[in-house]
Amino acid sequence: LFLVLGNEDLKAEKSDNYSISSYHEIKLFNRKLIIEPSLFYNDIENLISLGPTQGFTRQYINVDINKTKGGNIKLNYNPLDNLQLNFGFSLLSKYNSFIENFDTDDFIVTNRLTTTAKYTIQKIATSFNLHFKHNGNEIGYYVDKKSGDLIKTNLNPYNLLDINLYKSFFKNKLDLTIGVKNILNETNINNVIVAT
Hints:
By secondary structure, the protein is an all-beta fold.
C-alpha cells in the first residue's frame, strides 16, 4: 500500500508511434487459415511513469528515453467445426537506458509464444480450453551500489500450461468455468547474474 504524489516538475510526454499490419486468409485442407503479421516502433520522450517506492509514497517521474520495436504474428485455424487453434509469436526489443553511461547492448530483446486449443461441444454448451505460453530468455541490468559496475542478469525461459472447462447454463444466462493453472508445476524461474 502506498500513496501516489503529484510532481510539478513533470515535462510533457512526446511520442512517435509507427505500426504496420496485414490480414491474410488462405485455404488449408479446405479450411480457412488466418494469418496476421504486424511490426511496430515506438519512440517516447519524457515518458511519464511511476517512480520507485520511497517509504509509503510513489511519485510520477519522467523517463528520458523509452523506445520499443518488434513484431507479432498470429495464426488462427479451425481444422474441425468444433476445434479452434490459435498461435501467436512476438519479438520485443526495448531500449536499454544504461547505454548512455556503459558499454552495453542498446536494445534488450525478448520473445513470447502462445498457443491455444479450444474444443467445443455445442449440444451441451461446453468447451475445453488448453493454453500454453512460453516466455523467452529475459536480460536485465542494474548498477551495483558499492562498485558502480553494471551487472547483467539473465531470467531463464519458462513455460506455463493451463486447462479449463467452460459450461453455459440456462441459455447462456449462467456460466461456469473450472480450471487448473500451471500444470507443468513451474516453481523455479532462475535469475542468473552474468559478468559484464
